[in-house]
Amino acid sequence: MKTRFINAYRGNTFFLMNILKDLKDEDMMLNTGESNTIGWILGHITHSRGSLLKRFNKDVEIKEFEKNFERGAVKNKDLKVNLAETLKDFSSRGEMLAGTFEEFTDEDFNKDLGIPMPGGKSDAATVLSFLTWHETFHIGQIDLIKAACGKGGIK
Fold it and tell me: What are phi and psi of 33, to 5 degrees?
């Protein structure tokens, strides 16, 4: 099971880095009108990785600014993110998560995290399954926004 989550976080990092490789800081403000900006979505999934690491008692700095990207935060299309810095945080947090899962036992994946998921389960494996899907969803969303704004999509 651990390999599944390690590969998911590393794979998501790889795909996101490729999707964003040709963009600049100003491109983080792109949106489709109704969508969040690319930068907001990137901040959101980066924050999500940090929050998950905190839940596993890992030493990770979550910057005060990142609270703007929490689930349920007020939508603010004027928030600007530094692309290089945010990608660095996203990547390093992904590696920290992969390292965490390397140490996990089956018992760790069965521990209740107290975060109810659709279907009512809240064990670590269920929460991680949802969160990796959540990231993948948002990475796809970023690519769709990028394409809709004329910046090309995955080829």
Answer: 105, -55
